[in-house]
Amino acid sequence: MADMEVVDRVKSWLSWSWTWYLWALWLFLVVLLIYLLRTPLRVYENMNIVAMFLNTLTPKFYVALTGTSSLISGLILIFEWWYFRKYGTSFIEQVSLNHLGPWLGGVENNNNGNNNTNNSQNNNQQSVPECKVWRNPLNLLRGAEYNRYTWVTGKEPLTYYDMNLSAQDHQTFFTCDTDHSRPSDELASVPSAVMQRAWRERNPQARIKAAHEALEKDSECATAYILLAEEEATTILETERLFKQALKVGEANYKKSQSTQHLGAHYEAIHRRDTNVCVYVRRRLAMCARKLGRVKEAVKMMRDLMKEFPMMSVLNIHENLIEALLELQAYADVQAVLAKYDDISLPKSATICYTAALLKARAVADKFSPEIASKRGLSTAEMNAVEAIHRAVEFNPHVPKYLLETKSLILPPEHLLKRGDSEAIAYAFFHLPHWKRVDGALNLLHCTWEGTFRMIPYPLEKGHLFYPYPSCTESADRELLPAFHEVSVYPKKELPFFILFTAGLCSVTALLALLTHQFPEPMGLVAKTFLNTITSPFNFLVEKLEGVLPSNLWHQLTRL
C-alpha cells in the first residue's frame, strides 16, 4: 500500500510539473513577443542581437546544454519504462489525454459533456465483461507447501489480494447467518463466532491462535481443524490427520442438521454450512491422498464425492479427477470425464481445453514430423490434434510458454483468472509431467501452437472459437500473482511512442555532449551553422516584409 501511495504522489507531482512547465513556456513566449514589439529597435536588429549572442557562446555552454538535456531525457525514459512495465501504458500519454486533451480539444458545453461521459461509461460497463476470479481447484496447502517455499526462498508466494479472497471464501463456506444472530455476550464463548473472527484475521499466527481457542471451547469444532490443517500443519501427513478429525466432526454435524433442515430457514442455513464443510474436507483428503501417492484411493474419493454431491460443481472437483486420472494414465476415463464436462453450455477452463488437446495429440505425436507433414500434408488425426491445440491456445495463450519451459514456473495462486496468466501457471504446475509422459506431445505443441495467432489477428475484437480475449486479464493477474513474477501479457503490447522518443532524444543528446566535449571547435562551428540555417528563413521573411511595408509601421505598432 505504501508503494502505491508513493507512485500516486510521483504521478501527481509529474502531472503538476508538466502543467506548470507548459504554463511557464507559454508565459515566456508571450513576454518575449511583448519585449520584441515594445523595443524601439526593429525586429531585424533584434535578430542581429540574438545572432551576436549565439556567436559569443563557448563550447562549454553546448556541452552543458546537451549534457543536461541527456540527463533529463534519461530520467524521463527510466520513469516511462518503469511505468509501462508496471501498468502497461505510457504515463506521458495519460497526462496528455487527461490534462492536455481538454485544453486542446475544448469543451462546448459542460453539461452535455458530463452527460455524454456518463452515457459512455455506462455503455462501457455493459459491453466489457467483468473478469471473474475463480478459486483454484488444485490450490496448495499454506502450512505444508506455501510456507515451506517462504522458508527456503524468503519470498511470499501469495499476494494480499489472493489471501483476502480466500478469507472471503472461507467465511462464505464455513459460516452462516445464525452465527450473527446471537447476543454479543454469547458470541464471545461460541466456537463458530471465534472461527468467524479467525477467518477475518490477516496475521497467520492470530488465525492459528483463534483456532486453538475455538477447540478449547469446543473440541467438536470442525472448522478449527480445517484452519489448523491448512495453515499450521507442516507436512502432508499431519495435514491429513487434522482433516480426518475435521471430517469425523463434520459428518456428525451434517447428519444431525440433515434431519432438521426442513424446519425452517434457520436450520437450512446450518445444514448448508455443514454440507460445505463435509465437501471441502473430503475433497482436501482426496488431494492429500493424491500428494502421498495413493492415487487410486484419491480417484475413488473424488468419484464418490461428485456422485453424492452433484450440485457442488462450483468447486470444480472434476479438474482434480482429471489430473489424478492422467497420473494413472487412464486416458479412456479421462475422455469420459471430458465428454461430460467439455460441453458448449458449460464454462471452459485450461484443464478442459488442454487435456482434450493432449488426448488427441497422444494418438499422433509419437510419429509426427514437421518435415514429413510439410511434404505430404496433415492426416485427419493430425489435423484434429492441431485443431485441438489451436482451440486450447486460443482459450489461454499463456500456457504453451510454461509447458515448453521457455518461461519459469512459480507456485500457483489460490485463485485464478480464466484465460489469464494465473490459470496458465496453475495448469502447467500440475500438468507439465503429463505432457512430458506422452512421447512427442510437447514437440507437436512446439511446432503448431503459434499458428493459432494467424487465425485471430485481432484477438481483443474478434475470436475464432471463443469470445474475444478479455482486455482486463493483465490488471487482475498482477493482483493475483506475486511481484517477483513477470506477468505474461497477451496480446503483446508495443512500446509507446514516448518511450522510443525519449530513448532517441537521450541517445542523441548524449552523443552530442560527448562530441562537443571531445571536439569543441568543430562542434561549435556545426552548432552555429545549424542555428544560422534555422534563422535564415525568418530573416529572409523579415527583409521582404520591411521592403513591402512602410518604414514607420513597426513604430506605429509599438505605440498601441
TrEMBL record:
It comes from the Eukaryota. It is found in: Membrane. It is a multi-pass membrane protein. It holds the Pfam family ST7. InterPro entries: ST7 (IPR007311), TPR-like_helical_dom_sf (IPR011990). Its main location: membrane. Keywords: Membrane, Transmembrane, Transmembrane helix. GO terms for cellular component: membrane. The chain crosses the membrane at residues 20-41, 61-84. Belongs to the ST7 family. This is Protein ST7 homolog.
